[in-house]
Please model this.
Amino acid sequence: MNDRARIEAAYADLDLIEDAAGPVGRTIAALDQGEIRVAEKIDGEWVVNEWVKEAILLYFRLAELETSEVGPVVSQVRIRGRQGYVTTFGELCGVLPPRPPSQP
Model:
């Protein structure tokens, strides 16, 4: 059984989720590396790769919470940013730094 089949089976029957841990991890890594996409344009139409979406949802059941602390802010996440590199709370939340003042 290939990764896609294991993911689809586990999504349909959560009793099989442990069997899908490896395939889910490989799918998340492939997403992170840009090898696969959740949705792609085929013949001018957007097509959702349902099995990839299912892998993401299963990942949230399989992954452990990780605690990040930045100053007084404590956050718990299950999935890291691209390639696992989140260095600041702003990156974690997608917060942009303030715009510098305009120069006359």
